[in-house]
Structure formats: C-alpha cells, structure tokens
Amino acid sequence: QVHLAESGGGSVQSGGSLRLTCTASRYTLSGYCFGWFRQAPGKEREGVAVIDSDGRIVYADSVKGRFTISQDNAKYTMYLQMNNLKPEDTAMYYCAADFSMLRCEPQPVGVRDFWGQGTQVTVSS
Questions:
Q1: Rounded (10°) CA dihedral 82, 84, 120, 45
Q2: What's the DSSP call for residue 76?
Q3: 68: which of 23, 60, 61, 100 is 20 to 30 A away, CA to CA?
C-alpha cells in the first residue's frame, strides 16, 4: 500500500500562485503514474496533470501554461506549481498514484490505485 498526503492548499486571489506538495510512503515499484486531480463542488473529479516514472508529463488543457507538475524521486515527493490561478481552479486537489496503468493519462480518474485526502484550493475573484 502507498500512502499519500497533500499539503500546500489555501486561499489566494485571482492571478496568485500556490504550490501543492504530495508526499508518498516509500515504494519499490519502478513503474508508476502519479497525478494531480481536482473536484469542485457539484462537479465530477477531473485530471489536472500526470507524470510517470519515465518523466512523461500530460496536462489538462485548462491548466497548460499555468501549472507545472514535478517530482523528486529521492524524496518520494510530487509537486504542483500553480500560477496565474483563476476562480475556476477552486477545488479540492488530490494526488493519486497508480502502478498498473499501461499509459499514464489524466483521464479517467477512477483507475487510480491510491489517493490522498486532498487539500483545498480556493481562488477568489
């Protein structure tokens, strides 16, 4: 089992920045798909960005150019740098890990093996 924990959420004004961190328990599997997902009130959970063990990154169109996903393998940590935040980005943000996906993609969200508890991001206009 892999335990994930998010941090770094908060409230910011439109145009501001926030950096989310996801820390994972140690794991031995080399192949993985890690990602950030979000769910706004009354909306379905959606993929934001994913990164796999080969360093391949895929972003959702809505965050391209504004968000950056990265990882520090030595620290079992993943980050999501969010710049130029918009009210539409307001959501609970979750990190997730999967070790069985053939292809690492933001969608569908339901195939992830492990999820963190989430961290709230609120962007005011």
A1: -80
A2: T
A3: 100
Residue 31 one-letter amino acid: G
90-124 exposure pattern, b = at least 16 Cβ within 10 A, e = fewer:
bbbbbbbbbbebeebebeebeebebbbebbebebe
| Model pLDDT for residues 10-57, shown as the tens digit of each residue | 999 999 999 999 999 977 667 899 999 999 999 999 999 999 999 999
Per the CB < 8 A criterion, the answer to whether 105 and 58 are in contact is yes
- Contact (Cβ atoms closer than 8 angstroms) between residue 69 and residue 79: yes
Question: In the chain, how long is the greatest CA-to-CA distance?
Answer: 43
Look-up of token digits 């993985």: 32
**Separation between Cα atoms, residue 77 and residue 68, nearest integer Å:** 14
- Hey, is 79 helix, strand or coil? strand
Query: For residue 113, what is the DSSP state?
Result: S
β-pairing verdict for 4-7 and 18-24: antiparallel
Q: How many Å apart are CA 68 and CA 123, to the nearest integer? A: 17
How many residues comprise the chain?
Answer: 125
Q: Which amino acid is at 57?
A: I
Residue 61 three-state SS: helix
